[in-house]
Specification:
Elements (H helix, E strand, L loop, with lengths): L1 E10 L5 E11 L7 E5 L14 E5 L4 E5 L8 E9 L22 E4 L7 E10 L4 E3 L3 E4 L13 E5 L4 E5 L10 E7 L7 E3 L6 E2 L4 E5 L6 E9 L5 E9 L3
Antiparallel strand pairs: 1-2, 2-3, 4-5, 5-7, 6-8, 8-9, 8-10, 11-12, 12-16, 13-14, 13-15, 13-17, 17-18
C-alpha cells in the first residue's frame, strides 16, 4: 500500500482554470482525481478610451461643460473626470474633479476659476474590475471674470492749507492689477459710487493721488479700485474728513 496526495490543475474549454484535490489515501493504485471548483482568469483588459470630447464655456455662469461619446464595453462601470492647468494631466486625487465613484453620464459640469487661464480635461473610462483608459487631454480657455485683489492700506487725509486731500494705498503684490481708478460716492457708501469715465486709469506703480478738496464738502466718501486689463475692479472704501 502507498499513500497518495494530489493537486491537479488544468484549463477548461470555457477558459476557466480547474483546480482538483483528492486528499490523501492508501491504495494499491492512485485514487481518481475529482474536480472541486473552477476559477475565472483575472480581467486585465481596460475598456476603450473615451473619444469625441467637446467643451463649452458659459462666462455668465462661470461654468465649463465637458461632453464625450459613449464607450461600448459590457463591463463598463462609468467615467471619471480630471482637470489640470498643465499637461500631461496627472490622474491622481488632487486633479479629480468628479466624484471618486465612476458615473454613467456623458457630460460633466465644472466651475474653474474664470481668470483667463487654460485648463486641460481628461475623461477616464473605468470597468467593473477597476481597469482604466484615459482620453487625450482637451484644452479649454476661460474668459477672465475674476477681479484683482482690492487695494490694501488705503488711507485718506486733507491738507487745509493747500486745500487738497490725498488718498494713499499699498503697492500691489499680485500680477493681475493693471492700474487704479477712484470711485466717488455722493453722500455715503449706501449710495451708488461711480468712476468718472474721462479720468484716466492710474498706473500700477502709482500708490497715491492728491486732488483739490471740493467746495462745500466736510466729508468725502470714496473708493480706491484696482483694475485689471479686462476692466474688472475690486474696491476699498475710504472716508476723508475735513478738519473741524
Amino acid at each position: 500500500m502507498r499513500r497518495y496526495a494530489y493537486l491537479a490543475m488544468g484549463a477548461l474549454a470555457s477558459g476557466s482554470l480547474l483546480l482538483s484535490w483528492c486528499g490523501t489515501a492508501e491504495a494499491a493504485t492512485a485514487p481518481v482525481i475529482k474536480p472541486v471548483r473552477s476559477v475565472r482568469p483575472l480581467d486585465t483588459t481596460p475598456p476603450p478610451a473615451p473619444a469625441g470630447l467637446q467643451t463649452t464655456v458659459d462666462p455668465a455662469a462661470r461654468q465649463v461643460t465637458v461632453k464625450w461619446s459613449a464607450v461600448t464595453a459590457p463591463d463598463l462601470a462609468g467615467y471619471l473626470v480630471y482637470r489640470s492647468d498643465t499637461t500631461p494631466v496627472a490622474l491622481d486625487p488632487a486633479h479629480l474633479r468628479s466624484t471618486a465613484t465612476p458615473f454613467k453620464s456623458l457630460q460633466f459640469f465644472d466651475y474653474p476659476p474664470f481668470t483667463g487661464a487654460t485648463y486641460y480635461y481628461v475623461v477616464v473610462a473605468v470597468d467593473t474590475s477597476g481597469n482604466r483608459s484615459a482620453s487625450a487631454p482637451l484644452a479649454v480657455t476661460t474668459i477672465d471674470r475674476t477681479p484683482p485683489p482690492a487695494p490694501t492700506g488705503v488711507t485718506g487725509s486733507m491738507d487745509p492749507v493747500a486745500g487738497t486731500y490725498t488718498l494713499s494705498w499699498n503697492a500691489p503684490t499680485d500680477p493681475d492689477t493693471a492700474g487704479y481708478r477712484i470711485a466717488y460716492c455722493s453722500s455715503g457708501f449706501n449710495d451708488p459710487c461711480f468712476v468718472i469715465a474721462s479720468d484716466p486709469a492710474l498706473p500700477r506703480t502709482q500708490t497715491s493721488l492728491t486732488s483739490p478738496w471740493p467746495a462745500g464738502y466736510k466729508v468725502l466718501y470714496q473708493e480706491v479700485c484696482a483694475e485689471d486689463t479686462h476692466f474688472l475692479r475690486a474696491c476699498t472704501q475710504v472716508t476723508v474728513q475735513a478738519p473741524q
